[in-house]
Amino acid sequence: LSIPGPLYSVHVLRVGYSRPSPDGSVLADGSVTLVLGGPLTLLVDTGGPWLCPHLPGLLAAHGVSPGDVTHLVVTHGHSDHVGNLNLFPGATALVGFDLSRGEGLYLPHGLPHGVPLELHPGHLLVTPTPGHTRAHVSLLVTGTQLGTVAVAGDAFEHGEDEEEWRKLSEEPAVQRRSRARLAATAEVIVPGHGEPFRVLREWGQ
């Protein structure tokens, strides 16, 4: 009897951060996450352009080259998440609600209407999580060793963000619903600007 192990594993190549200064400026970059092990190799968010010299080395530490990445899932269009698309010209790219492949072939899908996008049925699902921006998405990776992992972009800034996420949100009421759906679905959340964290639920929920 053999029991198959998890197909995909999730690796945070770079933990995002956000450090405000007294003058109102913020030093920030988004988390960059690699999903591999199955037939697809995904990068979720690419960091800011200042990460460009370091990103190939972060991938290489996991035996991956930029050309091995089959899919990019960029949670939203802010510069600290979308800054290195040009390193992956061969990948199918989802940026918010824009899905393209090859030399600019844009593909139809239902994300703007609330319909998730299955990248690998039963394993990899992109779900719309609007609020921080209107066209914001998260990736759900099911069946990992930790259960379902939500790579959530800035739907969650970090694990203790309850006092701050609304200030950064285009639509706070909508984002609150997106956050609740992710927390009800995932065992682990990879936020946009902090360490991954486990979701704790009350008994009976």
- First-last Cα distance: 34 Å
The largest sheet has its strands arranged as 1-4-5-6-7-8-9
| Helical content (DSSP H or I, runs of 4+) | 10-25%
Class from helix and strand fractions: mainly beta
Number of spatially distinct domains: 1
CATH architecture descriptor: 4-Layer Sandwich
How many alpha or pi helices?
3
Family: Belongs to the metallo-beta-lactamase superfamily. Glyoxalase II family.
Protein name: Metallo-beta-lactamase domain-containing protein 1
Catalytic activity: a ribonucleotidyl-ribonucleotide-RNA + H2O = a 3'-end ribonucleotide-RNA + a 5'-end 5'-phospho-ribonucleoside-RNA + H(+)
Subunit structure: Homodimer.
Key phrases:
single chain; 205 residues; mainly beta; Metallo-beta-lactamase, Chain A; 7-stranded mixed beta sheet; 6-stranded mixed beta sheet; 3 helices; Metallo-B-lactamas; MBLAC1; RibonucZ/Hydroxyglut_hydro; Metallo-beta-lactamase domain-containing protein 1
Topology record:
Blueprint: E1 9-14, E2 17-20, E3 26-29, E4 32-36, E5 42-44, H1 55-60, E6 71-74, H2 79-82, E7 92-95, E8 98-101, E9 105-106, E10 117-120, E11 124-128, E12 137-144, E13 147-151, H3 172-185, E14 188-190, E15 197-198
Parallel strand pairs: 5-6, 6-7, 13-14
Antiparallel strand pairs: 1-4, 2-3, 4-5, 7-8, 8-9, 10-11, 11-12, 12-13, 14-15
What does it look like?
One of its GO terms (cellular component) is cytosol. It holds the Pfam family Lactamase_B. It is found in: Cytoplasm, Cytosol. With 205 residues, this protein is mainly β. It has one domain (2-101, 116-198): Ribonuclease Z/Hydroxyacylglutathione hydrolase-like (Metallo-beta-lactamase, Chain A), CATH 3.60.15.10. Helix content is 12%, strand content 31%. A 7-stranded mixed beta sheet has the order 1-4-5-6-7-8-9, with no helix packed on it. Strands 10-11-12-13-14-15 form a 6-stranded mixed beta sheet, covered by helices on one side. β6 (71-74), α2 (79-82) and β7 (92-95) form a beta-alpha-beta unit. The longest helix is centred in the C-terminal third of the chain and has 14 residues, at 172-185. It is globular, with a radius of gyration of 16 Å.
